[in-house]
Every structure is written in C-alpha cells, then in structure tokens.
Amino acid sequence: EYELMKKFSEHNYVAGIEFKFNTHNLYMQTMLGHGFLGLLCLLAILALQFFVAYNRGDLLYLSFVLLFSLAGLTESLLNRNKGVIIFLLFSFLLYETSTQSQASEPKKKL
To answer: Percent of the chain, pLDDT > 90?
Structure first.
C-alpha cells in the first residue's frame, strides 16, 4: 500500500493520498501489500477451496468461491475487516456443511 501512496504522491494525486484509495483489485492489493508470497498464499487458499467444492459436487460452495474470486477483480474485499469476517465465516460454514452432508451419505460398495 505504501508503494501506491508513493505513486499518488509522484503524480500529485492528493485525493488518493487523503482518502487512502486502494487498487480495487484484491490480487493487485495483495501483491502490493504482501508481495509475491502473499499473492501465492491467497491463490492457494482460493484454489484449495475451489477443488474441495468441485470434488464434493457442492454447487453452493463452488458458487461462493467463484463469485468471491471474480469479485476480487473489481474490489479489494479482504482489505477491510468486514470482508475478512464474511470470507472466513462463509468459507468455514460451507466447508463444514459440505463435509457433514458428504459424511451422512451412505458409502457405495464397489
């Protein structure tokens, strides 16, 4: 974020500095704030959730991950505390719901 403010300063963009504008892109904001390793961690978390939801055939969980990932292209959702709480809450609930529904289904014998 410091680098973004530095660029605002270089271009005399006072409003950007005053209101602490962000990049409005989750992935770019993560890269600026936490570097390449931070971006890889974020992508790994999203990819893991995507594959878990896909392998379980959980359409609701898969939709959540896809919508959150796509919304990250136009907004820094994890830049505020509300976004972090919403992401963690729904990720956990959908993961656990998916796990419980899978465990309650009878196992098929081969």
So the answer is: 46
SS3 for 75?
A: coil
Where do we find the tokens 């270089």? 10
Q: What count of other Cβ atoms lies within 10 Å of the Cβ of residue 24?
A: 13
**Of 59, 63, 65, whose CA–CA distance to 98 is shortest?**
59
Using the 8-state DSSP alphabet, how is residue 73 labeled? Answer: T
Q: pTM, whole model, 2 decimals? A: 0.77
pLDDT of residue 104: 67
Q: What is the dihedral of CA 48, 93, 59, 104, to 10 degrees?
A: 100
The pair of three-digit structure tokens given for residue 93, joined into one six-digit string = 């609930």
Residue 61 amino acid letter: Y
Long-range contacts of 87-91, Cβ-Cβ distance < 8 Å, separation of 24 or more: 90/64, 91/49, 91/64
